[in-house]
Amino acid sequence: MPLIQLNTIEKTITCLTLQKTNLPIFQAAVGATATDISNVNEWLAILESLVDHSELCDANKKVTNAVKDRVWRGPVTGDSLVVPTTPAYVPPFPLIEDILGKVNSANRRFREGPGYNDDEVGVALGFFSKSPLAPVDPDTLKPTLNAFPAASGAMFSCVVGNRADSDQWRVEILRAGDTTWQNVGTFTGKSADVVISLTTPGQPEQIQIRIHLRKSNAPYGLVSDAVTVTVNP
Question: Cα(56)–Cα(49) distance, rounded to whole angstroms?
Fold first, then answer.
């Protein structure tokens, strides 16, 4: 089995995700300390939060550029011109440099552990590509959701994280005064733009949004926390 090269942030997150679950199981086999286990959890949280925030910034930049072009050269539609505000980034732990170097150094040390082997421990800790020993538990998996409105067009964008093994996700909205959530589309990937019909055409509308993950066309994991946005006509 070829050793996985952690040459992307996604591969590094996958490795740390496996280690978050399995390093406590194989702690003695690889000679890991309590500090090693704590580091894995902190490094994973930092990388995941930065990826989510970066994607939110990219999506907001796309909307801001569209507003900039309309302000500069039109077209003139009479629709509202709203530049999205990106919330300040709040790290889950103090930021540090070169997490990749720290992960690679720890991994080399783990592979020298007294009970280490490639087929079982190496796969479980993300060194080699096989099915992990401990799959994601859908009973505890909850996706993250960032949502923000476009400047016009009754559209909002969703950025979904912590999707694990899901292959789709469904967007649901709750309108003011309603008690029933409405399905407004099923999507794949990390982000999507969603267009809805406004209750009163031409008037902004505040809604709540939540995400349901799906796998093989069946519900997967827990529903996300709801996010409130005001959609512009």
Answer: 11
pTM: 0.62
* pLDDT for the residue numbered 132: 46
Q: What is the pLDDT of residue 125?
A: 95
* Helix (H), strand (E), coil (C) string for 26-49: CHHHHCCCHHHHHHHHHHHHHHHH
The Cα–Cα gap between 93 and 50 comes to: 11
- In 3D, which of 84, 16, 19, 78 has the Cα closest to residue 51? 16
Helices 34-73 and 99-110: crossing angle in degrees, nearest 10, is: 150
Which residue is it, tokens 């902004």? 204
pLDDT at 134: 52
The pLDDT of residue 189 is 84
Give the residues of the chain that fall short of pLDDT 50. 132-133
C-alpha to C-alpha distance for 127 and 5, rounded to whole angstroms: 8
**Those residues with Cβ within 8 angstroms of residue 65's Cβ, 6 or more apart along the chain or in another chain:** none
pLDDT digits (tens, 9 = 90+) for 142-156: 999 988 888 888 999
CA dihedral 108, 112, 113, 118 (to 10 degrees): 80
